[in-house]
Predict the 3D structure of the following.
Amino acid sequence: MGIIGYAAALEQFDPTELLGYAQLAECHGFGAVMAADHFQPWVPQQGHNAFVWSWMAAMGATTKQMTFGPGVTCPSFRYHPSTVAQAAATQAVMTPGRFWLGLGSGEALNEHVVGGVWPEPHVRLAMMQEAIGIIKQLLSGKQVKHDNGKYFTIERVKMWTLPATPPPIYVATAGPITASWCGRELDGIITPGASHDKLKMLLGKFDDGARSVGRDPSTMPKLLQLHLSWADTDEEATANAMTEWPNGGMAFPKQDIRSPEDFAEIAKLVRPENFKNRMLISADLDKHRAQIQSFIDLGFTEIHIHNVGRNQTAFIEQFGKHVIPNLVWPA
């Protein structure tokens, strides 16, 4: 049985309000939470940037069974990898078996706040891979010394507060090379919604990577983050997308844009038709059910849904009643 998760947009909601939505989601059949790690919102209208690690600690303590993790943390700029390892170990100790560590190579919107040069994508990937190597060593409980790396240094140290089992590590990617690397080196993959052809390609690369080192990809988590806009009418759903999530209509890489104000200027060019084939906008719950089912049929084991409007209570209740129970998962 797979999982439908609630994508918690900390860049969009007050953290206390969002905590209530996560609790409500658990009551309505959502089995997991993917919590956004943002230092800034995409556009000023979204209006928030609560610290994801504080929020996850509160969510873990006030829900009962939901699995959860950051979607995603970059261990290369704002955080040193040793800090990420410490945070992950502590959360895993406090919520045994429920926490997973979602990592990524970063976006300038969130990471440039510490200053310095913003590297090219291949450099950011290499930085993330080196950082993950450090994190895995620290979470193993071994004494770690990392003084021959290209990007990071650690003096001789080990983690003292550790869970009985290290939390699984998933990496977010939309590229085939990293997807294959995830299959070889990590516990699972996270990717955003895209065309079926692209997603089939990414899952295939992930599976190939896993099989190349003797792993069974059918047992490995495959997480999809799915943005959508649902409301009582199509017109309201469209208005929500345009106002709250214009970044969903921007069909280009966004990792190099540095400020919400820059995104807001670009958003002036976004039109409702720009969301076509990128984000489903509809008042029809069955259309949303069918889209989610299509991603289950592709092979995803967890689908974390973000309804981009402010109508979170209605969304959670309606999807919990009419969508989640009518999904069919592989036996």
User: Anything to note?
Assistant: The CA atoms of residues 138 and 204 lie 30 Å apart.
